[in-house]
Write a structure and sequence with these properties.
Elements: H1 8-34, E1 72-76, E2 80-85, E3 90-95, E4 100-103, H2 108-111, H3 118-124, E5 128-134, E6 140-144, E7 151-157, E8 160-167, E9 172-180, E10 184-189, E11 200-207, E12 214-215, E13 222-225, E14 231-234, E15 246-249, E16 274-279, E17 282-290, E18 295-300, E19 308-316, E20 320-324, E21 332-336, E22 345-353, H4 359-372, E23 388-393, E24 395-400, E25 403-408, H5 412-424, E26 430-435, H6 457-471, E27 474-480, E28 483-484, H7 493-496, E29 526-527, H8 530-547, E30 551-556, H9 574-592, E31 594-598, E32 610-612, E33 626-627, H10 630-635, H11 652-661, E34 667-670, H12 691-706, E35 716-723, E36 726-731, E37 736-740, E38 745-749
Parallel strand pairs: 23-26, 23-34, 26-27, 27-30, 30-31, 31-32
Antiparallel strand pairs: 1-2, 2-3, 3-4, 5-6, 5-11, 7-8, 8-9, 9-10, 10-22, 11-19, 12-19, 13-14, 13-16, 14-33, 15-18, 16-17, 17-22, 18-19, 20-21, 24-25, 28-29, 35-36, 36-37, 37-38
Helix pairs in contact: 5-6, 8-9
Length: 753
Amino acid sequence: MLKRIWPASYQLRLLYLAVFVIVMSSSLLWISRLEKLPPLDEMRIGSPPQSSLPVYEGEEWSPGTVGPPGFYEAADNELFTLFLEPEKSQIAVLNKRNGYLWRSNPAPEDVAEETVAGTQLENLQSPYILEYTSGKNVRRIQSNALDPKMRVSYIGIENGVQASYSYPDLSLSFVIQYVLTKHGLEVIIPDAGIQEGAEHRVFTINPLPFFGAVSGTEEEGYLFVPDGPGGLIHYDTLRPANIRGYDFPIYGNDPAHLKDGFFDPKREAISYPVFGLTRGDQAYAAIVKEGKYSANIRALPSGIVSSYHSLSANFTYREEYGRRVSSITAQKVRTIYEERVRADRLIEYRLLSGEEADYVGMAAAYRSYLEEEGMLPNRLEPVERMPLLLSIIGGGTKPKFGGVLYETATTFAQAKDLVQQLMDGGAGQLRIIIQGWQNSGRKDTDQWFPIQSGMGGERAAGEFVTSMDALGVDVYFEDFMGWRDPEYTDFSIKADGIQSIDSTVLRGRFGMDNNFAMLTGSTGDFIVNPAKAIRKQKQLIDTLKNIGVDGVHYADGPGNLLFSDYNDAARLSRGDTAFYYESLLRYVQEEMGNVSIQRGNDYSLRYADVIIGFPLEPSYDLVIDTTVPFYPIAVHGYVPYTATPGNLRVDYELDLLKSIEYGAVPYFQLTYADSRKLMDTDYDDIYSSEFGVWKDRILEEFEKFDAFRQVYHQRIVDHEQLSDGVFVTTYEDGTKVTVNYNTKQFQVTGGGA
């Protein structure tokens, strides 16, 4: 039989045709998967709000009643009087209840004794520090209100004064408004008030950098910074000469800004935009209400830039980054991004005195703000038993036999048995998070369904949820919606991945707290544009809802990950991302009834039922002297939160006591099988999780937490250190939980104990 031989050129054409057909088929399959995504309005999600604070016009302000030397009254209400010193543009606020005067800058007689000179001395006397750039130069030039090139004018506004700062030679100007409130003072920088020329542009504005600043030897007290649960920098601590201050971005670094290509895994990203200062029996809590997504909290102990302890919010308007010279080299040049971050900036200073003048009073002031703004959920209800949270890991995909295979660590039937054993042992009011259930067996995926057959599949999942419902146990299924593994997603890296500041798609990998990545150019995971990711979430929510699942736990995204997207076709700021994430949480709660989050950045609190891994650990910075439960004080009684899983604590007894002192609820991350099943999966950091090993310890620990179940729904009203290693947390009804780290014991007294 003759065999026909095709010409080589014809064979090559066939090969090209086959490749074309495969590529087109894959593209059409991807398009068909995503074109069915619902529009955001079908999920009742609109567009992010835009900046709207006004700049006022009117008659020039003229000095009124004489105040402190050089100052004149600018505004007055029942509780406070605002004074303005027009020459240096300094302000002062008088607390009429006790006669205490808060100054924007140290008094002239104190400045006369300062040893710093030049710009640093001028900064000490200025109500702002401006950094601007000139042309293509990345060097930032610093200026202030004492700069001879600056011109200032004032307009009286309701409850305050508006100062317009202009640099005619630079074609640069901006506005700061100082407004009295019932709590103290608001400092506002409306975006509409910033005018720039082609050559000189704003880089940062640091308003009131020395408000209430304290001399190194003047009085007792501390600076409060939002490190982890809260950190204090005491005035009387002796520090090495080379110690650096505290200067970190609210909500951590923006991954799209490519800060040196990696992030420090030991850094605790800031979760709430608050800083504060005490001076004897006076204090303030400063809340960054607008512009918090592009601001740093800056605390400078005495000796770093002056003899004063000071802290403030530094607002960033442009970013410096490394731009690639070419696509074939890793070489980069430092560049300033041309476009300004468009956002209003507003800080509220709540002035405190007497018993309120400490970190507990600051936390209470912040809690009041959250309540006023509707940023907290409804108060928790009393419970008969302390809730116990469990994450049950089904398993994960690992390399095996030249391919990949799902390794089962817990089936749904075993999960049911696990729960029943704990309830039979006395545990009550359980909440369950199911992990490792996705069809792909991976975390960073949207290939969810059908549910992993290794756990029993969708039928077993439905039976498990039904059985838990009969026991009064809420069940959440975990999802990671920020980062995506390119091999386990329907999204396209190029079309759907966020773009970094250098216009390339961001690739790399971040940790759970948005604080670590090793960016590798063309490899690694990518972050999906949040608007697109949310549209895809409807499939997850609808399917889980049909199964009967009570809620979704977002381990990556809404509670702990915040980023910009520099894609020109769909530009997003960090504030836009926060808006979309908060909108998703609202939608899930409305549709399913429950939603939980990881870490719990403050913009995500409103719709959260549970927070896993609440920031209870510090960053261990040398500049911070004492760690305090500021964030727990603000949140307790509104949403339950956990620390690190009990089976993964570094120091079991110490971390257990810290959870009790800070008002957390018990939490464990478990498998039915030996944790070795998780090796080489996405859960291979879970080194000890076998239920049989931990069962007795879980029940023992549950009884300890259950001893103060009566405070589960209560606010924390006080926290203090009684002696070295002994701390007491006091709740609304007078219950005191005393933790003794020396004897490794705790005691519950008073109130409903």
